[in-house]
Amino acid sequence: MNSVFQCIILSSILAASTLVFAAYPDNPKNGQVYESEITIEVWNARTAEWVAPETFWLRYAQRGKGKFWGRASSYPTFSTVNEFDTILIELDKGVCLMEFFHQRWRRAQDVRRWDTAFNHFGGCPYVFD
Predict the structure, then answer these.
(1) Residue 31: φ, ψ to 5°
(2) What are the residues facing 4 on neighbouring strands?
(3) Which pTM does this prediction carry?
(4) Which of helix, strand or coil describes residue 85?
(5) Residue 3 confidence (pLDDT)
(6) What does the DSSP 8-state code read for residue 24?
(7) How much is the CA Rg of the chain, to the nearest whole Å?
(8) 49, 36, 40, 44: which is closest to 112 by C-alpha?
(9) What is the DSSP secondary-structure string of 48-82?
(10) Is 19 helix (H, G, I), strand (E, B) or coil?
(11) Which residues contact 26 (CB under 8 A, 6 or more apart)?
(12) pLDDT digits (tens, 9 = 90+) for 51-65
């Protein structure tokens, strides 16, 4: 390859990567969702990085106040759960992190007030069907 062609390719790659990085929001808040044509990522303020939504949920659940019941397709028995317990509930249409709050299971986003885009991710739109 000649050097002119290499320079053109390199400048195209740099321009494309600049566009990708420039698209991220400045000063994101914890739980803020970034969607592109390629990916959905969530800002994790604790680790200061963009991660997949499921990774964000798992990290939250594993360090939360309550017990993390893991990933399951059914909820634990009502009498065994406590305030702030979490479960990554599996539905046919995807998963959603649920948190036990005020005597019932709620989407963790509804308790924590992360980005409302979580309500449309994975199984979250369908957890109350």
Answers:
(1) 85, 5
(2) none
(3) 0.79
(4) coil
(5) 55
(6) S
(7) 19
(8) 44
(9) TEEE-HHHHHHHHHHHSSS-EEEEESSPPPGGG--
(10) helix
(11) none
(12) 999 999 999 999 989
**Burial grade of 40 (CB within 10 A; 0-12, 13-18, 19 or more):** middle
Assigned token pair, 30: 């914890």
Give all strands (DSSP E) within the chain, no chain letters: 33-35, 40-44, 49-51, 68-72, 86-91, 94-101, 104-107
CB 22 within 8 A of CB 16: no
The encoded tokens of residue 88 equal 């990554």
Q: Token match 């009498």: residue?
A: 79
Q: Residue 20 in contact with residue 12, Cβ under 8 Å?
A: no
Distance CA 62, CA 57 (A): 9
Does the structure show a pLDDT above 80 at 84? yes
Between β-strands 86-91 and 94-101, what pairing exists: parallel, antiparallel or unpaired? antiparallel
Do the Cβ atoms of 98 and 127 come closer than 8 Å? Answer: yes
Angle, vertex CA 29, rays to CA 13 and CA 48, nearest 5? 60
> Which of 98, 111, 45 is CA-nearest to residue 68?
98
